[in-house]
Amino acid sequence: MSDSKVWELVKKLQTISFSPFYVQVGGIGTFGSTDKPRVIYSAVQSTEALTDLANQVQFVAVQTGFSSEERPYIPHITLAKKWAGTGSMEKEIAQTKYMNHSIIRLYVDRFVLYQIFPKQQPKYKVKACFKALGGENTGATD
């Protein structure tokens, strides 16, 4: 993907307006097989404010020429990726469902655009940070 397309996206994302809000985080989930998950995550409770923000970001991305995300939106915080062990994680994942998980309330006053570089370490690079009303967008980080 070209740098000009990324920067066009950054400029359009700067037009998104949202007020700060809270979300609740807790519990464990996976993407992919529970035996060898692609992602282990902590669930984020979907709220109207979070869904609205996600929809605005999706709209702007499609408007800029990026493909529409066809998978259902599952708010989450990634904890681990790409299980590389030889054994199964299924038992450990199942056990977490019966644990007493603390629910954490997080204040959301910004969102971040990352660019992924699959063959580099680290793979994710912050391109820009976008703050809620009353804050100032940082734009580029490089």
Q: Any descriptors?
A:
alpha+beta, 4-stranded antiparallel beta sheet, 3-stranded antiparallel beta sheet, 24% helix, 32% strand
SS-derived structural category: alpha+beta
Number of helices: 3
Q: Percent helix among the residues?
A: 10-25%
Would you identify the regions where 5 or more consecutive residues have pLDDT less than 50?
none
Q: Output the radius of gyration.
A: 17 Å
Spatial order of the strands forming the largest sheet? 3-2-1-4
Average pLDDT rating: 86
**Terminus-to-terminus distance:** 17 Å
- For the secondary structure, the number of strands is 7
The oligomeric state is: single chain
Characterize the biggest β-sheet: 4 strands, antiparallel
* Strand residue content: 25-35%
Short description:
The protein is α+β, with helices and mostly antiparallel strands and 142 residues long. The chain contains 3 helices and 7 strands; from the N terminus they run αββαβαββββ.
Can you tell me about this structure?
The longest helix is centred in the middle third of the chain and has 16 residues, at 48-63. A hairpin with a 7-residue loop joins strand 6 (124-131) and strand 7 (139-140). The chain has helices at 3-13, 48-63, 90-96, and strands at 21-31, 39-44, 76-81, 104-108, 110-116, 124-131, 139-140. With 142 residues, the chain is of the alpha+beta class. The relative contact order is 0.23.
